[in-house]
Fold:
Amino acid sequence: MRHQSVGYHIKKSLIYLFLIALAVTCMIPFMMMMVNATRDGNEILTGFSLIPSVHLKENWDTVFSYFNLFLGMRNSVLVAIPATLLSAYFSTLTAYGLAFYQFKGNKVIFIVILVFMMIPGQLSLIGFYQLCSKLKLVNSYIPLIVPAIAAPGTVFFLRQYILSTLPKSLVEAARMDGANELFSFHRIVIPIVSPAVATMGIMGFIGNWNNYMLPMILINKNEKMTLPVMMATLRASQDITRNQGATYLSVAISVIPILLVFAVFSKYIISSVSAGAVKE
Amino acid sequence: MAEAKTVKRKRSKLTAYNNWGYFFVAPFVIVFLIFSVYPVLRTLYLSFTDLKLVGKGNWIWFANYKRVLTDKFFWRALGNTFTIWGVNIVLQLGLAFLLMVIFSDVKYKMKGLRFFRIVYYLPNLIAATSIAFLFSTFFMYPYGDFNNMLVAITNLFGKIFQRRDWIGSSSTAWVVIAVIQSWMWFGNSFLMLMAGVQGISKDYFEAAAIDGAGRWTIFTKITLPLIRPILMYVAITSLIGGIQMFDLPYLMVSASTASYGRVQTAMMYLYKFGFTVGTTQVGYASSIAYTMFMIILVFSIAEFMFFNRKKED
Structure:
């Protein structure tokens, strides 16, 4: 290796400094949020600080006297987990069906999937709400869960993945041994594509967990609200918004589950975003 | 004869196998028809009716669309959407692009990509509702943390900072929202661009290095052309997402605030007619949805052509 000049090292250090500054910008709002969750309104008004204070309990009481965030969390779990599981299972099933079987209409379905991937959500929003109110599904979780069975983007991604990783001979060998097609799907296909399914599943979970607009439109009973919808009612509460510490605490409580998911699954999340780019 | 028979039997067995395909895609197709295809077509139908809230509504042909085209509040909302998105995409893509250049540079060989990309992606994971409240509190007037910080910093230089209502005033609110939006999304764009760079075969870079190509040549002749499809993908998805912007401005700026007219997005305008008690006009809201779709389509095609024309040079 060639010896590098002093200028090279200075420039390199400056670039690192920039990268670190940017990283701090990404993290500081969360650190501030955690710290301010322990400070009371007056302390926050008097100035910015990164040293925790002792008012966590008071803020906690203010927040929970207004709403039960844990109920919102439970509701979010009741929506996000079934939706994620259904989407993972049925998307894999559909993707495998499209990738491995030649049947009439296969191509048509695939083209329709491509078209719907490009159609923005607001086109279906009004019709969707009308359908739900006609079927008496307002304030029910069914419209938030069942449509996850048909996720065009996930199916498209998994179809491409199956075509590139699953050898046809494997399934054919199982046929020779007299295996049922559904059995082959469960025992051969699912294990092989599971990394891709997990990746899509985690992103799907985060998307469902954070989803705001659809649950806001469909759910208006307090005890059924998901976490983001419940958070949005904060705007109406003078008691909490007047006390900034309580606002920060409720944001912190709502953010922690996702931070945990991220800490555990960051590798999958990063690879799924990257995969999203390469699939084009 | 016997051979023909086995071929036939084989083929019928193969069709039998292939018929399993119907079984595998059936749940998807059924749910898709009910919850995706039907609502989209239903919205299209409603956009030609004068349905207000309940009942059937009358078929009024293109009257709603004529109204959208001449509705100056809709165009103002669309203008707001585009200016917020414009500032956002310049910052977001610019930063992502800069980071990609830094991490793909052959001379400096920066380390820590695995760490930085995770940190940069972090803001993208948090629900927009939480982000909205975090930053509403942060930018609060007069004693929010942002104002406090600016006061503390200007004090250091012996000056006095005039506290500002960042979200309440029209001149700053839309910029604040655009910056938050970029903060949320630059990590995502960066990851995508970086995936593109890492997908380029190392052979190209090595061959270029052997031929004595400089950093600039390698960047413009190899990296840039090969990540162009991803750049296009990022730009188009960001546009589609950007035109539907709703959560942040809706939650951060209430209708009674002075800056509302400057940050009301097209989607918020649609929401007003589609779902707000008292102003519901379902037919009109549907035509707004389809008008927005047409606009997205035109811009996506324009973007697509822009990126593809460059390729031929």
